[in-house]
Amino acid sequence: MTRYIYAFDEASEGGRELLGGKGIGLAEMTQLGVPVPAGFTITTDACRAYMRDGGFPAGLDEEIADQIARLEEKAGKRFGDPEDPLLVSVRSGAAVSMPGMMDSILNVGLNDVSVGGLARSTGNEGFARDCYRRLIQMFGETVDGVSHDRFSPDDTVEHAREVYVAETGRDFPQDAREQLRRAIVAVFESWNSPRAQVYRRTYEIPDDMGTAVNVVQMVFGNKGDTSATGVCFTRNPSTGEQGVYGEYLVNAQGEDVVAGIRTPQPVEEMAKRLPDAYEQLLETMARLEHHYRDMQDIEFTVEEGHLYLLQTRSAKRTAAAALKAAVDMTAEGLISREEAISRIDPGQLDQLLHPMLDPKADFEVAARGLNASPGAASGKIVLDADTAVERGKGGESVILVRWETTPDDIHGLIQSKGVLTAHGGMTSHAAVVARGMGKPCVAGCEGLEIDVATKEVTLGGHTLHEGDVITIDGGTGRVIIGEVRLVPPAINEDFETVLGWADDVRRLKVRANADNGVDSAKAREFGAQGIGLCRTEHMFFGDRLPVVQEMILASDEPGRREALERLLPFQQSDFEEIFEAMAGLPVTIRLLDPPLHEFLPPLEEATDERMRNRIKALTESNPMLGTRGCRLGIQWPEIYEMQVRAIARAAKAVQKRTGTEPLVEIMHPLVGFAEELHRLRTLTEQVMAEEAPEIEYTCGTMIELPRAALRAGEIAEYADFFSFGTNDLTQTALGMSRDDAEGKFLTFYLEDGVIEHNPFETLDQDGVGELMRIAVERGRAAKETIKLGICGEHGGDPKSVEFCHGLGLDYVSCSPYRVPVARLAAAQAVLKEAHRAEYVAAGG
Amino acid sequence: MTRYIYAFDEASEGGRELLGGKGIGLAEMTQLGVPVPAGFTITTDACRAYMRDGGFPAGLDEEIADQIARLEEKAGKRFGDPEDPLLVSVRSGAAVSMPGMMDSILNVGLNDVSVGGLARSTGNEGFARDCYRRLIQMFGETVDGVSHDRFSPDDTVEHAREVYVAETGRDFPQDAREQLRRAIVAVFESWNSPRAQVYRRTYEIPDDMGTAVNVVQMVFGNKGDTSATGVCFTRNPSTGEQGVYGEYLVNAQGEDVVAGIRTPQPVEEMAKRLPDAYEQLLETMARLEHHYRDMQDIEFTVEEGHLYLLQTRSAKRTAAAALKAAVDMTAEGLISREEAISRIDPGQLDQLLHPMLDPKADFEVAARGLNASPGAASGKIVLDADTAVERGKGGESVILVRWETTPDDIHGLIQSKGVLTAHGGMTSHAAVVARGMGKPCVAGCEGLEIDVATKEVTLGGHTLHEGDVITIDGGTGRVIIGEVRLVPPAINEDFETVLGWADDVRRLKVRANADNGVDSAKAREFGAQGIGLCRTEHMFFGDRLPVVQEMILASDEPGRREALERLLPFQQSDFEEIFEAMAGLPVTIRLLDPPLHEFLPPLEEATDERMRNRIKALTESNPMLGTRGCRLGIQWPEIYEMQVRAIARAAKAVQKRTGTEPLVEIMHPLVGFAEELHRLRTLTEQVMAEEAPEIEYTCGTMIELPRAALRAGEIAEYADFFSFGTNDLTQTALGMSRDDAEGKFLTFYLEDGVIEHNPFETLDQDGVGELMRIAVERGRAAKETIKLGICGEHGGDPKSVEFCHGLGLDYVSCSPYRVPVARLAAAQAVLKEAHRAEYVAAGG
Q1: What is the mean pLDDT of chain A?
Q2: Residue A702 pairs with which residues in a beta bridge?
Q3: Which residues of A, range 616-645, sit inside 8 Å of B by Cβ?
Q4: What is the chain A residue with the closest CA to B764?
Q5: Which of B708, B721, B696, B716 has the alpha carbon at shortest distance from B590?
Q6: Is B159 within 8 Å of chain A by CB?
Q7: CA B699 to CA B692: how far, in whole Å?
Q8: How many CA atoms does the CB half-sphere of B669 hold within 13 Å?
């Protein structure tokens, strides 16, 4: 028969999954000799059986009775004794810490009679009545669902009982064993509370894990001035600095510290008031940290001078603290470098790379949009790019506020601290450019209206004017009126140290997506080992746009060639800057990708009939699936020819000037058929041979169409490398335009649980990942030496980086600001893989 | 050593691939005892060797010399003899008949001296000089590339030689063996002529097949009144009727019959003028047809009363002739039913189902568009649907001419003979609706401009007015000003007979795509075994549109439900009609698929602010990849709920009224995740159980996204059937919007040979087909009993039908007018498969 209970001092095979986090902590502490009250844990098996059958499994009641008898023997008190009752707390404890579940009921076992016995045996009637009042209130709230606001800490026992009776229609249960049983049931059932379900869905915790229940002999922090209760960290959870960091309250019980009714004292104060207990606390914390080899977050109670630990767990911490603690603990010899790497959440690193809203700042959110580019900024509203430049160059902090931005706004974006748009999604121009620049962007802000004529902005119903100050938080999509205090970015030595360790461990190379010399230099600073995606279309805007438009409007090939001839020197100098910034590292240049109509104004802004006709002819129903990528290069080879020529000349010039030969990789987008790449490779080879026969280069393609993934074997014949364009591959494989999905049905899908992750943020491994797997297999089978990378946004997402590692790619490429995240995630992927291999080797 | 030549009377192992079509025919005829001039065939091996090495392979010259010696011996004449020369013709003959290659050079072996000998030995100087003149001209044109128009049939020998010298800068070669060798080289080289290359690409003939060369002793149809030359069919190639059908010319040689310089006589006339030869011709033709068991197309020459066959080949024929001949030959016991089925080109059947332009009619094409729906029609131009109805109901034939049509034009389409649009592609509204109705449509006509205000139409530069007559040919995309004589559709007994045989053979079921009772009845008439795709969105237009718009504009669910409540009876009655028309056969109803904005007017036609806002909110960048299909049903379940309710009630009503229970299949579109179908299946089951628990039905999904194909195993858990939506699957797998590809880069790709087939017409087997294969495997592995079909347009394309057969699908579904095509193609697929199996069993 299954055993459903283990006492803290009994060895169990089950570990965290069976006993829950709290239970395993209490058992381990007990077995370490740390002072812990006696008690036992009802396993998650019991909870699962309860959920399955709708009642206690056979034998559980008997096991509880046995364990209570064991507790009674240890304590020398009886449960339900009217004179000197044994009291217990009942606490939930799942394997994973989980808000939304019932937490604790204290003082279980008291009733109308034994409250008098407790008063007599402790000589403290106030204490006894306080305990009973707390029991009635907690029991009422958590077991019977009485609303929290019906009770008050100032209630008397009598008043609490009246409320209980009025709300539940029953008397408060007087039988200690009935109290205990109902409390255990309440913990089991809280596993399925709506809040707990939502939390599980968000954090992907399986629904069938269940929770354990801990029954712990009560110790009392509310027995007067030599009693206390508190919470404490072994290091500062904000900074990672060594030394205890916590708070306590004298003469208080359990939840009082966190409930915020009384103001707690810094834990160091205990040194004066409870010196023995404090010394024991410090000694115990040191032992626990040493045992767990990680920063701990503990709960303790001092009962009449005696210290008891009630909980220990790994402490939540800021990114800065996590890095500092990891580096320090490695120096202290507590953990290895590999463990230090594993302990940092790569997603958290963003906090260190961008200014953030001060977590202590107080503010009201006026409107919300999409969290399109992380970081926070405050500044004066400007409504057009020219004003942004004027004011920005004048030293003012400005936020560019637009319906949406276009490439024509680029000079304004450069001078702004951040950008806020009413329209557009995660792939809108503003979002993409801001992410590349590392500036905050809130896009598609619903509560934002802009009247350019009157220079008025309405934000969540408030009217503002150009020059008024707002604050945007691109990490969460919040927009606030006025200035909010910011926390500056904090790349420090610890950051560099841990990432250096990660670099030693990882197999995947990390490159960056960058389109100019400045971004390339920034990427290199962040540790990028090359450019994985240089989009050449961004070079077609600004002062080049009129020439680009001439090219598009030309009626024949000679006309196009003439305009392209004038564009060439621009492209060449762009490439030269990038090659110089990345000297010694590879640079993958993608030839023109977007449909040509993106370079023309909207129809209503056409300046003449020819332009109007051309815009009409180029307009597409589904531009994502239209004449773009290599389809341009095949239909109008002179465009790609000019681009390859510019690359060749730039490489030659840089080599001559610097003596270092650029590592050139020429990439053709949107290939679906091997014949497309065949033709474009021939064109590339011809032009390179003509212009710069001495420059070595490779030629490859994006894999961003399902067909390309399936036919990778044939395509590999003409490719030196593949770069998975997982943005477009996601759009095509899922039939989902990102701009039309996010904020619309995709958001509904995520909220309603149809799918778990946003596939544009975290790679859809089952669908898109399957196509990648097929492409890797077929590509490598056809050409063993083919180089494989990814340059979609997923290249900077830790989960996706791990997947790419498992797939055996050679590199990931992401925006410069995600490079550190990818470096760390790539190292963690290696460590996880080794861990799994060990587990398997050990017969797991 | 490879042998490169076989004489006609020598057995060869190589067959058609080695000897070419003409060569194998001559050899077989020789071996049958049919009168054929002596000669030999230089194999395709020799041609391939020539192409590879750029010269004759070793031994070929010696083999030619041997064979010429053999010919000389048989003829009792010497090649190059000045007195009584042996003359030969040199003729190309690839395995597949192929225009664009050199055809023949006659009279090889004559020179300035032997022309006199020939005159003397035949006693006919005119004939001898005629032969020499022909040789010089043909040699000049085909070997030396002299322009055709430099020569004339009226030239003298002397003038022809002067032209030859002037054009080539050389004297005409006098050595018979040199003439022969250069003629052979010219045949080899004509294999790579640009025209031949284009032809091979179009008809997918491998470039490395090469051509054979036939060297045939000359027989002369130009030796006076007892000589003649002609071409003849064993049955009428237009109607298939029995009896010889051909033409001949007295005293003429070779190309004169087809060159059209003299008017040939019907071959029956020979009965009077050359009775012996004629009788022998009839007898020979009967033998050949019997031998080849197929209608033959022959060339013959009569030399001084003696008949010679120069060529025999399978005759090209119209669809009607093909059917009649097949049925007759089966009745005659000449071929089996299976052979009869195999001989009909399914693509040709279209000719019989629609009126066509009379092939003999003379007309000028004013403009061209896309061949969006087959058939031809003449009628008066009308520029709006109301006028079409008014005039159409009044009995006039009208063609609706529009920029593009919308569902609001549907009543006008019904009353028109055909539709012509300036905009839109193969999937435009006009195209889809016209195909469904079996009416001709030319879409996206570039040379068409419409001025609605003045009621003027410009067509290829000509100005026309409403009421002027035009003719459109939807099978080719041609538009003609004025009326053109049409050939009526010809579904006759032969058609029914052959399709009946096909039905006995095929394994695939054939269903139709139809959205209403009339089309369903038409489909059934054409032999559809069910409806594979009933699109419900077409039922949302017309007088229902205002209610649909109310539904979309409603601000909350109750508002939507109220409008849906009013739509329900309409949907129900639509379904009742279809169920009745298809009694006893399955009907697959697809729930609403298109994005909601398709039901709203363009922004500029919005009638109020609410509508304007809603249109804005619903507008999508890439509607193909937006909120459509099951994404609608999941976000607004009340829409699908209403549709399922209407299906349930219609099924119940029809069962009650007719006593036959409809076979209902409910299909959810655009599923990408199993969880989507899980939810929609639950909804479907709930509503069906509520409304019509007694009605049996199945519930399934389209597979039209790459992700759905890859995850077919999981999706199958909730699906009774899959229907491959290969239109959308092609668009997503290839990243190609049909509307943006056809007439644009896709047309360029096809013309430029980047890809071979239009993937929207013929399934892209390597890409889309691969996804289907994966889905079939995974779907069947998860659920053995799952029913599999296809409802994309490929369901009516013969090549794609064959692929679906090979994949093991259960059915194909196509537009009603393609049902006969699919029935035949499905039967042919079975026969081809059996043929391959036999071939493999025989060790092939």
Answers
A1: 92
A2: A723
A3: 620-627, 631, 634-635
A4: A707
A5: B721
A6: no
A7: 15
A8: 31
Letter for the amino acid at A660? T
Closest Cα partner for A234 from A294, A161, A154, A167?
Answer: A294
Say how far apart CA A457 and CA A403 lie, in whole Å. Answer: 11
With an 8 Å Cβ cutoff, is B604 touching chain A? no
pLDDT tens-digit profile of B272-304? 999 999 999 999 999 999 999 999 999 999 999
Q: Please state, in angstroms and rounded to a whole number, the distance separating the CA atoms of residues B248 and B263.
A: 9
Q: Which residue in B541, B582, B548 sits closest to B562, CA to CA?
A: B548
Distance CA A711, CA A717 (A): 11
B752 touching A (Cβ < 8 Å): yes
- Nearest-CA distance A403 → chain B (Å): 13
**8 A C-beta contact, residue A413 and residue A427:** no
Question: Binning pLDDT at 50, 70 and 90, where does residue B313 land?
Answer: confident
Q: For residue A742, what is the DSSP state?
A: I
Summarize pLDDT for A5-42 with one digit per residue, the tens: 999 998 777 788 999 989 999 999 999 999 999 999 99
Active-site residue identified among A429, A597, A668, A794: A429
The Cα A609–Cα A615 span in angstroms is 10
Residue appearing with tokens 């691969």: B770
* Tokens coding A591: 């030839």
CA nearest to B363, candidates B375, B378, B353: B378
Alpha-carbon distance of A282 to B389, in angstroms, equals 94
* The amino acid at B432: V
Q: Please, are residues A207 and A200 in contact by the beta-carbon 8 Å criterion? A: yes
Contact B821, B349 (CB under 8 A): yes
- What are the helix and strand counts (H, E) for chain A? 33, 33
Instruction: Supply the DSSP symbol for B600.
Output: S
Residues ≥6 apart with Cβ < 8 Å to A274: A226, A228, A302, A305
Residue A537, SS3 per DSSP = helix
Intra-chain end-to-end CA distance of chain B, in Å: 24
Q: Name the residue of chain A whose CA is nearest to B735's CA.
A: A625
Contact indicator for A441, A431 with CB cutoff of 8 Å: yes
pTM attached to this predicted model: 0.83
Rounded CA Rg of chain B: 32
**B734–A623 CB contact, under 8 Å:** no
Chain B interface, best mutation among A639, A710, A778, by max B CB count within 10 A: A710
Sort out which chain B residues have CB atoms less than 8 A from A670's CB and list them.
735
| Paired tokens of A142 | 């958590």
Q: What tokens appear for B513 in the block?
A: 């795509």
Instruction: Identify all chain A residues contacting B592, using CB atoms and an 8 Å cutoff.
Output: none
Evaluate whether A87 touches A218 at the Cβ level (below 8 Å). yes
Q: Are B740 and A672 in contact (CB < 8 Å)?
A: no
Q: Write out the catalytic residue numbers of B.
A: 429, 791
Residues in chain A: 844
CA dist., res. B385 & res. B380, Å (int): 13
Question: Would you state the pLDDT for residue A475?
Answer: 85
Which residue of B635, B707, B770 is in closest CB contact with A734? B707
AA identity, residue A190: S
